[in-house]
């Protein structure tokens, strides 16, 4: 069953085309990551999905209903975590949740508030003023608020932005538990590792367009692996000339301490290292997944690995 | 279900606003103090102008000089008459503690008795031309008005009052000061409620709930209006207890004041959705209110100020509020429009403001 359908969405602010003909759909029970750098259009997409922005073209349907005509019934089925957390900082955590419970007309709200506070690990801080919370705690409280009315669809706009590593993993754990319960989650993130860790499918967004989409494994296959070889500066140029033409190498670049190679996903980096050593001395090497910036360069330069 | 949810949202919004006010207790206390401070400020216009110290040196001591001094003492003018020795008067005039010295010459009574012109010497500190003009206008007027009892003067003024009672300038000013208080304090509190939703970026969250914005906004406005009403009640207490200005009908005053608070809270809420920033609310309210106040019949009925100012005053809600409050407090009609018209215009402004605020909250840009 399709929970979200986005068709040919165009949003323009002034002369800037924030969303440029976006189309995709989300199946029930899946976790979808919208990944992109700042200004890619992630928040505009979330705002459009929430009916907060009126697009110039196209439509968003959630549970089959046009979000711009969304009534109370549809809003009751959505849990939204805005990027800004949108908490009342001068009152306590429990006062924030009581207010939200009233807005969502939740029966027996005390019990439900206790449950969500327990879920995000904030029971001990329930009566503390939100202003005194760390960024991570505020984010967790905002997630608790989004979960309060038990919505089948959660829209999380950068749920881990500005939080420390510990809080980030705690939030990941909450999102995984939601997935386990069969909830549909759509989240935006700047971090590729976050999307890989949580999502069934990723949409890579750039300048309001979908640059690429697929499962994390598919995308990794397309962008390949990154191999950094540390060597003397004069040797890195010769090495690039020797290895750069290989079919195994999608893209190469010289960096401060040597040569960086992007390899097709089926290539074993050790084979390349073996070849490199046959050309001359190397000081060391490191194989890793490409970061988000590297993925963008790979995808937009057309050097994708053949599936 | 719908009604019960709206009531639930209304109550929750009240509690949230109350919690936020409690978190800012100093702000509420300062609002009450601001209400008193504004009353004091406007009354100072009258108080300072009413008591310009003028020394009288009476060298005559005859019956006519005594009579003119007694008459001046009881007549309306803006001078506090003092009777120091001539040397002290001169020293005080030179040191700026006196506005002027009026000297009645030793032949004053004799000249009046003989039907001759009697000269009064007046030395004025013309440091401030405005004060000098006051002296030049008011002192001769007071002397001439009381000279009607002198032999040979045949012209008498017969006064027919429009109102059954006189209203002192201070009594008039402090009531118009309440209108200023209402607009400023209720307006700021109302504006903060709505502007805060944009500033704290909570509007996005509110939009994503099935709750009615009308119930949400009304719940919050009730609390803001209560806080403003508290501040105005403190100001009213000061007016009655300290200024000894007693309302003709306390119930009418309470009703009119409550209406003003509600109306200005609504106007403030509208201003808040237009500004979207709490930092800009306070200076803009002051910037708007002070000229509105001065041009709205605050110092005297606006129709006395000339056609242009009177027409401009109609743009200001304070004009109608002054009309309503002066009627409730002193039974005066200071606007040519009937009181019910003042009230209707205020209610229409409040209704329009609320509708615009609700529209912007539920449909306007969230960022």
Q: How does the major sheet of chain B shape up?
A: 4 strands, mixed
What's the alpha carbon Rg of chain B, rounded to whole Å? 27 Å
Report the C-alpha radius of gyration of chain A, rounded.
23 Å
Shape of chain A: elongated
Helix proportion range of chain A: 25-40%
Textual characterization of the structure:
The complex is a heterodimer of chains A (307) and B (367). By secondary structure, chain A is α/β, with parallel strands linked by helices. Chain A folds into 2 domains: 2-220, 3-Layer(aba) Sandwich (Rossmann fold), CATH 3.40.50; 225-289, Alpha-Beta Plaits, CATH 3.30.70. Chain A is built from 11 helices and 14 strands. In chain A, strands 6-7-8-3-9-10 form a 6-stranded mixed beta sheet, sandwiched between helices. In chain A, strands 2-1-4-5 form a 4-stranded antiparallel beta sheet, covered by helices on one side. In chain A, strands 12-13-11-14 form a 4-stranded antiparallel beta sheet. Chain B has 2 domains: 2-45 and 165-363, no CATH class; 52-149, abc type-2 transporter like domain (abc type-2 transporter like fold, 3-Layer(aba) Sandwich), CATH 3.40.1710.10. The mean pLDDT of chain B is 83. Chain B starts with a helix and ends with a helix. In chain B, helix 2 runs antiparallel to helix 7 (169-199), helix 2 packs across helix 9 and helix 7 (169-199) runs antiparallel to helix 9 (213-241). In chain B, strand 1 (52-58), helix 3 and strand 2 (79-82) form a beta-alpha-beta unit. Chain B has helices at 2-23, 25-50, 63-74, 86-94, 108-113, 129-146, 169-199, 203-207, 213-241, 250-275, 278-294, 307-313, 317-330, 339-363; strands at 52-58, 79-82, 100-104, 121-124. Chain B is mainly α. Chain A binds chain B through residues 47, 50-52, 71-73, 75-76, 78, 80, 82, 84, 86-92, 95, 98-105, 129, 145, and chain B through 1, 5, 8-9, 11-13, 15-16, 19-20, 23-24, 200-211, 216, 366.
């Amino acid at each position: 069953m399709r929970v979200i359908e986005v068709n040919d969405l165009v949003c323009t602010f002034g002369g800037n085309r924030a969303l440029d003909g976006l189309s995709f759909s989300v199946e029930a029970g899946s976790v979808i990551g919208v990944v992109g750098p700042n200004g890619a259009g992630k928040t505009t997409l979330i705002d459009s999905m929430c009916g907060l922005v009126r697009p110039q073209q196209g439509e968003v349907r959630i549970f089959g209903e046009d979000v711009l005509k969304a009534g109370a019934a549809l809003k009751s089925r959505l849990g939204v975590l805005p990027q800004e957390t949108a908490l009342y900082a001068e009152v306590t955590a429990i006062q924030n949740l009581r207010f939200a419970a009233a807005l969502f007309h939740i029966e027996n709200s005390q019990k439900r508030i206790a449950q969500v506070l327990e879920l995000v690990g904030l029971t001990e801080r329930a009566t503390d003023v939100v202003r005194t919370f760390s960024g991570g705690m505020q984010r967790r409280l905002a997630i608790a608020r989004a979960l309060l009315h038990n919505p089948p669809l959660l829209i999380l706009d950068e749920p881990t932005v500005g939080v420390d590593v510990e809080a980030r993993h705690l939030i990941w754990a909450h999102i995984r538990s939601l997935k386990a319960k069969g909830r549909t989650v759509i989240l935006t993130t700047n971090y590729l590792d976050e999307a890989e860790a949580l999502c069934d499918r990723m949409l890579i967004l750039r300048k309001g367009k979908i640059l690429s989409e697929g499962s994390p494994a598919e995308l990794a296959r397309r962008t390949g692996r990154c191999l950094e070889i540390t060597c003397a500066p004069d040797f890195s140029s010769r090495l690039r000339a020797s290895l750069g033409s290989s079919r195994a190498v999608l893209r190469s670049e010289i960096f401060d301490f040597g040569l960086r190679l992007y390899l097709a996903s089926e290539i074993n980096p050790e084979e390349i290292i073996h070849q490199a050593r046959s050309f001359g001395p190397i000081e060391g090497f490191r194989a890793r997944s490409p970061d988000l910036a590297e993925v963008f360069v790979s995808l937009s330069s057309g050097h994708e690995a053949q599936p | 279900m719908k009604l019960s949810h709206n009531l639930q949202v209304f109550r929750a919004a009240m509690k949230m606003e109350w919690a936020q006010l409690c978190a800012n207790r100093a702000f509420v206390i300062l609002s009450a103090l601001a209400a008193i401070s504004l009353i004091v400020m406007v009354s100072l216009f009258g108080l300072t102008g009413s008591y310009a110290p003028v020394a009288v040196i009476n060298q005559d001591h005859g019956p006519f000089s005594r009579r003119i001094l007694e008459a001046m003492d009881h007549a309306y003018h803006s001078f506090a008459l003092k009777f120091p020795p001539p040397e002290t008067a001169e020293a005080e005039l030179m040191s700026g503690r006196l506005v002027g010295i009026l000297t009645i010459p030793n032949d004053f009574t004799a000249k009046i008795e003989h039907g001759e012109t009697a000269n009064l010497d007046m030395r004025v500190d013309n440091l401030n031309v405005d004060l000098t003009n006051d002296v030049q206008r008011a002192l001769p007027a007071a002397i001439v008005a009381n000279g009607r009892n002198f032999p040979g003067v045949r012209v008498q003024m017969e006064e027919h009052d429009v109102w059954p009672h006189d209203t002192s300038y201070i009594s008039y000013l402090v009531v118009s000061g309440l209108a200023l208080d209402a607009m400023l304090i209720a307006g700021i509190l109302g504006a903060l409620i709505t502007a805060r939703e944009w500033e704290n970026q909570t509007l996005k969250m509110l939009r994503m709930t099935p709750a009615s914005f009308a119930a949400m906004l009304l719940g919050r406005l009730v609390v803001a209006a209560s806080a403003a009403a508290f501040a105005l009640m403190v100001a009213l207490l000061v007016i009655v207890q300290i200024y000894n200005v007693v309302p003709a009908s306390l119930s009418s005053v309470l009703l009119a004041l409550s209406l003003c608070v509600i109306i200005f809270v609504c106007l403030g809420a509208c201003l808040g959705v237009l500004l979207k920033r709490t930092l800009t609310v306070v200076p803009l309210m002051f910037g708007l209110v002070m000229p509105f106040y001065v041009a709205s019949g605050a110092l005297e009925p606006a129709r006395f100020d000339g056609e242009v100012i009177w027409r401009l005053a109609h743009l200001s809600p304070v004009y109608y509020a002054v009309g309503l409050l002066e009627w409730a407090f002193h039974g005066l009609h200071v606007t040519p429009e009937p009181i019910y018209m003042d009230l209707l215009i205020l209610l229409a402004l409040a209704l329009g403001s609320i509708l615009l605020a609700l529209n912007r909250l539920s449909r306007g840009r969230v960022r």
